[in-house]
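Q: Predict the bound structure with adenosine-5'-triphosphate.
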Amino acid sequence: MMMASTSHVVTLLFSIMAMVTIAGVHPGLAIALTFSALVFAFLTLAYHRKSLPRFIMDVLDRLTDKASLENAYKAREQHQVVIDAEALATQLRSKVVGQDQVIGELAQHVRRRLAARRPDKPVAVICLAGPPGVGKTHLAKVLAENLYGDKRHLQFFDMAQFSQPHAAASLFGQARGYVGSNSYGSLTAALRNTPNSIILLDEFEKADTEVHKRFLTAWNDGFVTEVSDGARIPTSDAIFILTTNAASRQIGEIAETHLDQPELRDEMTKQALLDAQFAPEVLSRIDVVLPFTPLKGLDIARVVALEMEQLTRQFKLELADGGIDPEILLHAVDVMQDHSRGGVRDIARMIEKEISEGLIEARAQNAKTVRLAASEDQVKVLVVDLKDGSAPAPYAEETV
Ligand SMILES: Nc1ncnc2c1ncn2[C@@H]1O[C@H](COP(=O)(O)OP(=O)(O)OP(=O)(O)O)[C@@H](O)[C@H]1O
Ligand SMILES: [Mg+2]
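A: Predicted complex:
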């Protein structure tokens, strides 16, 4: 305050001295300068007091409270850059079961990187490793939904499809003169159309080394080159998530035994991947490798319950609160612990086979809410209430 008022006084003194000097040399010029300064001061005052003619005013000054709008806008922009890692982790954990530690680390990493962007690198390059059917691909999908609120921001690539050296062309475009050179590669097109995407590279180790090399450039330089027209497409808004099954048993064990020692765990996981022939040049470009734990005990029950809820929704029905018979979940846990090769996937298939028919019949009865009951090694779908609000027919419980 003090500094500001002193400098104002000094400026004023200098201005007066300048005017006196100019008036001595050229009185006309001094009058013209004084007059212009007065007009300028008047207009500035009028602008700040919002008493300018309406057609000169900013439309926001005229029609709203511009200052509060500007503040709210600034706050919103800030929010998009700085995400709340705890809130994100909580949302992810509600859909991906039994991987709390890696979810926490993933959310922190994404928060840090979104807050401090690097113009010549992707937002992040993350690898999710571990046994099959434990939620790796599922987590990447749920992250995209939570971060961007829209499935279009998830670009899925099954890397097993690119196991031949020439397969790079379908991702990065084809040189002129070849078939397909008039359209963009699937990866370059995805990055061009939605730059702020999660690029999910499923089972990355299965792609050919030529394909790997092209990704290394994408991560190193912050752009990919579309071969057909040489366009440079930035990767600096994208999050690359790789998933892998390499060394899955070993990685599952590491995750279980060293869950709370991130540094040692990270070192051991990377070594396990290297031992399983995971390309070292790829590994060295990955920011963080997150090992997934095999699902156990009640976590299996949680995943099965979520699967049942989701399947019910696909039939446009609701599962009643407390609507799954514990017997069903207990049975699923036993089955999975006894012979779980495909992880939750086997169970999901089993559930679908067992309850789809019952759900179709329930919907045909105009059901709104259902529950699932165990009955002699089978799962029965029972109607709780109907869409029109009426109670289900008494025989419905037995027949559906
Ligand atoms: N931890 C989990 N929490 C919630 N659902 C899960 C979990 N694990 C698996 N599922 C369910 O099982 C399905 C298969 O899991 P997902 O595709 O994520 O397996 P994955 O770990 O990627 O296995 P793979 O290595 O074989 O690709 C998912 O779509 C999801 O519905
Ligand atoms: Mg997967």
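A: The pocket of magnesium ion (ligand 2) is lined by residues 136-137, 202, 243 (CB under 6 Å).
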